[in-house]
Queue: 2 jobs
Job 1
Amino acid sequence: MSKLHVQLTVNGREIEALAEPRMLLIHFLREQLNLTGPHIGCDTSHCGACTVDLDGKSVKSCTMFVAQADGAEIRTIEGMAQPDGTLHVLQEMFREYHGLQCGFCTPGMITRAYRLLQENPNPSDEEIRFGISGNLCRCTGYQNIVVAIRAAADQLNAAKEAAE
Amino acid sequence: MISGSFEYHRPKSLDEAVGLLDQHGDDARVVAGGHSLIPMMKLRMAMLDHLIDLQAIDGLKGVREEGGNLLIGAMTTQSELIADPTLAAKCPIMAETALQIADPQVRYCGTIGGNVANGDPGNDMPALMQALDATYIAQGPNGTREIAARVFYEAVFFTALQDNEIITAVRIPTPPDGHGHAYEKQKRKIGDYATAAAAVLLTMSGGRCATAAIALTNVGDTPLYAEDAAAALIGTAVDAAAIDRAVALAEGIASPAADARGPVDFRTKLAGVMVRRAIARALERAA
């Protein structure tokens, strides 16, 4: 089968590449673009470690062919911090509140939490738990992840208020 | 896991998509959200030479009310159903059910068309479509045809849809104002298919049940439209005796497989429990 010419924007960078249509988006990101932040946990769309932001949606990149993502705009964990290295508030709060232990689920957790807060800037703890229910963490028991997302929401809201 | 090789198509029109399907027959499949098909392709349980992606076809998304019906485009995602104001006002059981499907990431991708067309008895929308008396609109090489959800499902992964047809929309008669509704689903964890689930819709008039519809998810080879169970409620005050009769009739048509979700007796009993809870909640909500 012939390779497909794909064009997509990843973390603000325009990418053109040749890829087999059957290549999974997660493999394309990790192996062809060297973006190894998104992880392969279960490879069965259960664990959420491969979550990326695609055209304003949280997507499990193990369950999408790169062909389907042709033309899309994607953000991975590598695109969360500023170019000068300043961490995103979510990253800061995960560090501050111990929202991770081994760190394997963290790239997926943070990219998912980013989209959750875009859609619901002031979620309750229950809404946070429901919002991250597609991301599994085997270390933390989720408690500090919820605390970290809540703290990030508070900071983002305070910054927005100060700006107004 | 890597799927077999295939050629990728992204047609811009429905006619082009149907043409590709017609041309390649059994060697081609359409993909919408992909969260049923792609796992099967990765497991090599689905092997195909041509994958036809419907994402670039205009007009397959969205909800509108038209002449007493709700018309939902097949490519409307579960998260779009959940956020839709028309459905929230006219048919809130759609969002209630969609919220119990999989997880947020899957709901951004998964579509109503894919969910109803797939033919997996674990899918939640088919039973709801039967309870709502929905009609599927399919396009093939010879034009469009309509298939009632209540006769669409034949066996596991076998439906009335032909290989060269694509479901383009789902049409639901708008439920009357004041109707009661509930979708009750028991699952082992977020993201799992139902151990058993039940959809109930009913209307009350002068303290009596005027209309009722019940359907069951994942306790048979197909979704099960529980016509007799619903009939046991109609004309009654939906009292304890009537509910007991409906539950017994629903359990009577359940024939679940024994699997990791439980043995046959348990899942049969649970189907009854889901019906009982859904009736109770629908009754509370009915005006």
Note: Chain B has three domains: 7-53, 63-173, 180-285.
Job 2
Amino acid sequence: MKVKIKCWNGVATWLWVANDENCGICRMAFNGCCPDCKVPGDDCPLVWGQCSHCFHMHCILKWLNAQQVQQHCPMCRQEWKFKE
Amino acid sequence: MAAAAVRDGDPGPTQELLVAWNTVSTGLVPPAALGLVRPRKRAAGPRGVPGIRPWGSLGSPGSPSLASPAASPPLHPFPTCPRLSAPFPSPLCVPSLRSSALQASSRTSGAVPPKEEELRAAVEVLRGHGLHSVLEEWFVEVLQNDLQANISLEFWNAISQHENYADEPQCLLLLLDAFGLLESRLDPYLHSLELLEKWTRLGLLMGAGAQGLREKVHTTLRGVLFFSTPRTFQEMIQRLYGRFLRVYMQSKRKGEGGTDPELEGELDSRYARRRYYRLLQSPLCAGCGSDKQQCWCRQALEQFHQLSQVLHRLSLLERVSAEAVTTTLHQVTRERMEDRCRGEYERSFLREFHKWIERVVGWLGKVFLQDGPARPASPEAGSTLRRWRCHVQRWFYGIYAGLRIEELFSIVRDFPDSRPAIEDLKYCLERTDQRQQLLLSLKAALETRLLHPGVNTCDIITLYISAIKALRVLDPSMVILEVACEPIRRYLRTREDTVRQIVAGLTGDSDGTGDLAVELSKTDPASLETGQDSEDDSGEPEDWVPDPVDADPGKSSSRRRSSDIISLLVSIYGSKDLFINEYRSLLADRLLHQFSFSPEREIRNVELLKLRFGEAPMHFCEVMLKDMADSRRINANIREEDEKRPAEEQPPFGVYAVILSSEFWPPFKDEKLEVPEDIREALEVYCRKYEKLKAMRTLSWKHTLGLVTMDVELADRTLSVAVTPVQAVVLLYFQDQASWTLEELSKVVKMPVALLRRRMSVWLQQGVLREEPAGTFSVVEEERPQDRDSMVLIDSDEESDSGGGGVAARRVVPDLTGLCPQLFWTYIQAMLTNLESLSLERIYSMLRMFVVTGPALAEIDLQELQGFLQKKVRDQQLVYAAGVYRLPKSCS
């Protein structure tokens, strides 16, 4: 017997490669979106800090904007720097 | 002159009084009545009265035949009146009076009754003696006695002859004769009554008012005459009046140039035309019912006219005919209604019946002698006729509404076509008090005809939708709908596929409830988000109509009025979340299992639903649709990349993925699966391409979903199939090793044994694998003859599928359900072998109970199954009769 596959239509879910499930700020799932967004994925991306923590981009930006003096990661309190 | 004698002090006042009394008494009542007092044997007399004679030859009071009682002159002028007997000794005891009494009576017993002046003089005498006060009372008394003893018996005797006459013309003649006889007997009394009235007017008599006396006489007449009416008499009268009406109606038709004014207007209806020609062809006259040659319509009309006149003169018209007329009218109306309206909902009958009623009222005018220029319509007569018209109309509304109420279920079922019937019913209901009857009857009809397990949910919903539309026309306040359809809503709540059906209807997926899709796309929908709570915000205050009494006071009227079909359906469960969730999973199914969905339609549906359910709940669905679009783009992207590469780097087969945002889709079943090396590689390659495209993101494959098209090349045949990834993977393992035990395979595939066995059943079905011995599966390289049967089935199945001709083929999209119906087929065959015959619903529910072979299979719905079964019927593998499927004899 020989099976010849002509076409494989698969179904998959995408997920962020992150070390956590939920955003530490909004507590929403990374694979979902932040409370201000409607559409996940490209429209509501994640960003990583050099401290290896990651958040919804919109969430961390909001957080950073709220910081008066120095910008810290809300999780580890290290200075926040975007991971390049 | 007699009065003058009294005043002059005439020596014989008593005698004078007696003479006067005799004059008066013999003048006022026929001699026969006065003879009454004598021996009671007279009571047997009427038996001897000559029977019926031809009209016109009836004896008058003076005629010899009737003179027999008068032959012995009345000797007792004071019949049984106790008050009179004391002051006035019987004339028999006063010999001196006898001669004058005889003289007076002999004068009257001749053909000539005493002249009016004489009588008047006599009355003056009586008045002089103060006796005028008893005169009227005495008159009534005599009349009553005469009626009791003679006239009544005579009349009924004549009537009882009718038993010998079977046919109507004779009956009519007899009736006419009998009443003629009666009239001739009563004629003297009526004449005297007029005199008495006149005297009363002149002040000679005290009277209780002229009207009083006349009324009394008539009451006595009616009372005595119809004290006990034989049934047969009523029946005869009724039959004759029925005939009269028909003859009259017919004569009206003929009267207008041979065309039928009633039929003319409605000859467009096929039914009416047929009826009209039948009438023309019939050898019988439509009026009198006898042969056209012997039609007696004309005579009948004349005779009826005579009869009415006689009855009218006797003031018996109402008494004799009212009941018969009423019954006849009721009967005729009912017959006509049954004949024309029953089952006919597509046109209004009100106008036609109004016209007809006007003609019936014309007939009534004839019966009650109130038409014709000769008789200027007195206000009283007008009012009688008005009363009758009112009665006929009310009766008509009542039974018409009754008929429609009885048929309401069917009317509702046919709704858009049966609108005229609904509007008729509405008109009638406003005039009759039949609301409760309607509610009860409709509820009962719903219970018996709709709300039982034999009806498809989708049909129930369809009927409910029609009911909403129809009853809204009937009752804009929607109270009838609310009350009568409560059982439907309650029942739908108990059906588990209700939500699915409604949602399917909303998205235009099912055939039965297509209305919903239309309804959904209507503009300006009532939002479910904000029920308009403010009570009187809309409309002119002038147009305000209170709610019917049976409305539920707990609910606001405007909300009830404004609710539309979709909001009513959605509110069956009291919450819209259920519907949104159902819609979501239905959408997910469609998107993932039917790769041939139409994005435009889905987007449109979601947009329309957003208008109803609000933005937020539909958000998930929007993301789902966006995922589909994104996936397509990504696939195209990757494909483009692939094509740029050299041929040797091309993947061995095309991999496409639908990439979902997991948070927004309904949860998926997670099945573990160990994919063979080459496949895993291909999938990982795809995954890497994705990761390159979307930074920091990766894919997780869901093997339970998807579709793999492949060719299975066996020694003697090649199968081209479309299966789920799991099924494909399982078969792939058999490529390298032709035989596996279930346990071994289970370890390799990393799938529980039971699940694996279910997945493999497809291949057993296809004849690719066989289980021999139990628990060991091996590839069937060469087909054995006993397997051929199933192979033939598959071939024919695929052929008709690819042909795409029939409804079924269109519905069971070949590459999405693939082998699934085939899998069902074994189950169905087994079921039918065991249970002989099953209905569609039964098969469906049993399949749902037993066949749990994965999401793709659970997907098949009732319509698909039906399509599949119908195809089997066409291929003569099944027999369908009387709503059940069975296997053909040879097959079992």
Note: The longest strand of chain B covers residues 697-713.
